[in-house]
## 1
Amino acid sequence: MKLTVNRSAFCEAFKTVLTAAKNGAAVKVPGAYMTADENRKIAELTGTDIITSVIKRIRNVDIKGGGEVILPPVALEILRRTKAGSVSLETDGNGVLHISFGFSRYDLPTKPVNEFPKSAVAFPTVYASVTGLPSLLKHAAFAAEKSGEDRQLQCVKIRLTPGISTAEAMNRKRMVSATGRNISDGEADMLLHISAVNILSQLLTDNKTVYAGIADKRAVFVCEDTVFSTVMMNCRGPGIEELLKRIIPEYCADIGAKELLKAVETATVCQLAGDDRCINICLTPMGIKLTCAAYGRTGSAFVPTLCDSPTPEPGFNYDPQIITDFLRVTAGNVSVKIDKRGFMLLEGTDGIYIVTPRNAVNIVKPKAKPEKTEKAEKKTAKKTKKVA
């Protein structure tokens, strides 16, 4: 097999498929599997972590004799360091990949192609055309559990419909349901692991149309010459509708998302590393009052806004990080709604966010620095004498 290809296009394709085996992948499979079709003039690269696969096609490639090879990761590093416009890749019968450009030539050993965990990607018979999918995923994926043994929380539930499409995620402290209006022309329900969602988000851009479908219990997304396929999870996943039925808001206020974000960040400045991260939120008739405390330090902020149903004076306590995570990806106004137990709803144009309350801040006096021992004092004295 020998082919000559544009270097930048090849590097981009190689880099794209390697996202399937990055940190957090189910199984790290080094390198990429490449096939070259002389008749179609297409080189196809595949990266995988067994559960998720990414395929990238390069068209109009000068190919002489088709074939297949496992590309070692070092090949990408070599090609990144040159400014050559095109490169040649050739294999021989001894399992060696020859890379040449200009006056340079590299000979790299490769693994047998049967060692790469190839799996035939089944393509759906029906697709939904989707625009704005990266934005929908961005507003939900941050809330999912990233690690641990509770896998049913490490997922994002995607529901595509011609009207309102949603993406839901949760952990033990929060739940989000992001919404996208008129972004899909078809229907599909998918439950994807958070690691797969993170990979998919890197491959897509908001201004490109994605075709999504399901085949053989795998979710498949096609965007131009890129194909993403992953095994769907079989657990129940998030269910925000059931939880919303049990939350009856009693206290409400409307505020700009960025105004509230700035106020939370201002109030929490007093809390340093090692402090109990906690913020108290109280809705007053004239605005939202936020207070924080640590040993010997306090912080507060006030956001003016009309509130017809203020909270009781003690307010409610929350983890500030849980609140700022949502506000950082949200624009426009949000409605702050709190029930009698302290469960908070943040509703914006991008969706609904549920924050669970917590106990009041635990202020602990910092441990005093240990005094110098007698031995340490003697060592210090000896060093002082030597310097003198």
Note: The mean pLDDT is 89.
## 2
Amino acid sequence: MSGDTTLETGVRRILAAFDAATPDRSSLNALAEMAALLQARLELLLVDDGELVQAAGLPPARQINLRTGAVEPLAANELAAEFRAREARLRRWLADAAAKRQLRWSVRTVRGEAGDALLLASEGSDLLVLRRRPGWERYRSSLTEPLSVARRARQSVLLLEDRVATPRAIAVLYRSDAQGTAALILAVRLAAAGNRPLDVLVPASEAIETARERIRAVSSAAATHGPRLRLFRLASEDALPDIASRIPDGLLVIGADDPILRPADAWDRLRGTNRSILLVR
């Protein structure tokens, strides 16, 4: 891809974080494909629950065997062995996926309170990837409540829908500021690589003809064979329902500090869909 673009995405190091809900092999392949597209190093971070590790081995600690339904003691040595086996398995899978794409990669494990451990480990990365599960608020771990991490992160954050895969549809909310342009560049690269059209959503505050010229110029510079662009004018600044109707699933790319996300209920109105969300900083 080195000769394919003239505009850079600014993504050189991707950190994909997972807790006990580890990714399957197809998910790792999808992450490796994204990293190869962006010419970025892919680092897999496994976050072990520090409280769970401390509790293991104490007399009250119990676990449910999912195969038999039996309640069993939670042994510290068995838990440690499970963590080591998980890391070894993911290391093998990622090595295979990376070899096929000439990708730089690594796997490591950190232990501690999930949100704090993750933010500390993510320093220096350009894109933080978290799994976005249906019903975010049902999960009490900081890692599995990705919004709490995304709002504290200093880098761009990709909140993935529960099943990690190449998005079927891509849309970007464009503004003429630096964050809006960065969001457009990333969206163009992803859409072009997947041979998908790109829906560009233009807020009511942007002059449509000026935006149209700028979007076409950025698209041409960001990818030699840019995606087919479809421009949509949003009726107002309060247009999250309009955005949701454009992409019932797939990927929404948006500036992390975009005014459209500022209302207190903005995230509530985005929750009821299966989309992934890329917050660009």
Note: Residues 27 and 164 are 5 Å apart (CA to CA).
## 3
Amino acid sequence: MLFDVTRADSFHAVEKWKSDLDDKVCLSDGSPIPCVLLGNKCDLPKSPALLNGAGDVDAFARERGFVGWFETSAKENVNVDESVGFLIDRITENEDALSLTALRRDFDNGKIHVMRAEEADEVDYPRMPRQRRTKKNDCAC
């Protein structure tokens, strides 16, 4: 999840974005999926509202369930590979622990569950009706 360090409003939106993610996607045991917080544009001057320092972002990230956070610059390629590698490591830790290979959407509450393959085999997946294409636009939507 990425915010712009030059715009305080994007940092303040992170709390809602993380809540939305946690409400919609979880591991099969109900725990949140690993998510890293990225403060992008670290090559530019920070917003005055964000100048309290890394300690505040550390606490913010920890309190909201992020597995870590990085200051990044896509323009200057700062911490891009490191942050992606860190997230991949956290994902594979969960994958090794749970042997995750499947996703399931719970239509009752709109949440997506990441689950073990053997759990997925036991799920009766609801089927969405196929839509007919029209000659007018050859589109199913």
Note: The first helix runs from residue 8 to 24.
